[in-house]
Write a structure and sequence with these properties.
Order of helices and strands: EEEHEEHEHHHHEHEHEEH
Distance between the termini: 41 Å
Keywords: ATP-binding, Cell inner membrane, Cell membrane, Hydrolase, Membrane, Nucleotide-binding, Translocase, Transport
CATH topology of the domain at 1-79 and 204-249: Rossmann fold
GO molecular function: ABC-type phosphonate transporter activity; ATP binding; ATP hydrolysis activity
CATH superfamily of the domain at 1-79 and 204-249: P-loop containing nucleotide triphosphate hydrolases
Structural class: alpha/beta
Shape: globular
Strand order of the largest sheet: 6-7-8-3-9-10
Protein name: Phosphate-import ATP-binding protein PhnC
Pfam families: ABC_tran (PF00005)
Number of helices: 9
Number of strands: 10
EC number: 3.6.3.27
Length: about 250
């Protein structure tokens, strides 16, 4: 069974507004590192955010880890979101908090309100956070405030925070768009390596086609809310890219 199955996904932000996603179908398997590419406004971020209902679909079905996402009540949705680690374009860190506290915030869904208020996390959580910070190369920065870090370092904090959830799926929403090319490649290699090691599939909205081709085993191409390509990375041809980006203004 697929980790994620999407059928006839449609989204409008207002009742009379334009349709952002127009009947999208795809499956994500347990060993996939799947990239979504396409021009700005194609619907990539909207699709990513529908998976954990940060955006409410207008129609269609999303089945994640065997659960009908659209049918979940608020409590069950919170439970499902524990299993989905999300890495954001703008990092979504709390600037005034330390690197360690930002990473530990990935365990808030598993910690009582009183404990989280006073930052009383179990010893095993602290040990795990230290391990992930070491793996992303930030073990020397644990007490720094998040706003003292570079963009690449901030994104590494975001990766460690997502891993603290012990996710069964990673959602990556433009994880490299705020980074320079060298750091972008390093960040993608880091995410891919850890995802493969932990056996966690990933769905990645990415603007850089070359990075998608280098690090992802499958690619979906969107144009104006319509799926134009879905296949193994090795099968993506220049003609497919021309069709996907045909409407982009250069």
């Amino acid at each position: 069974m697929s980790v994620l199955s999407v059928r006839n996904l449609r989204v409008r932000y207002t009742a009379k507004g334009p349709e952002i996603l127009k009947g999208i179908d795809f499956d994500l398997e347990s060993d996939d590192f799947l990239a979504m590419i396409g021009p700005s406004g194609a619907g990539k971020s909207t699709l990513i955010r529908c998976v954990n209902r940060l955006v409410e679909p207008t129609d269609g079905q999303i089945t994640l880890l065997g659960q009908d996402v659209r049918a979940l009540n608020a409590r069950d949705l919170r439970g499902l979101r524990r299993n989905v680690g999300m890495i954001f374009q703008e990092f979504n860190l709390i600037n005034r908090m330390s690197v360690m506290d930002n990473v530990l915030s990935g365990r808030l869904g598993y910690t009582s309100n009183i404990r989280s208020l006073f930052r009383h996390f179990p010893k095993e959580d602290i040990s795990q956070a230290l391990d992930y910070l070491d793996r992303v190369g930030l073990s020397d920065h644990i007490n720094k405030r998040a706003d003292e870090l570079s963009g690449g370092q901030r994104q590494r904090v975001g990766i460690a925070r997502a891993l603290m959830q012990q996710p069964k799926l990673l959602l990556l929403d433009e994880p490299t768009s705020a980074l320079d090319p060298k750091i972008s490649r390093e960040v993608m290699a880091l995410i891919m390596g850890i995802a493969k090691e932990l056996g966690v599939p990933a769905l990645c909205n990415i603007h850089d086609v070359q990075l998608a081709k280098e690090f992802c085993n499958r690619i979906i191409g969107l144009q104006d809310g319509v799926k134009k390509f879905d296949g193994d990375t090795a099968t993506l041809r220049d003609s497919d890219l021309e069709e996907i980006y045909a409407m982009e203004v250069l």
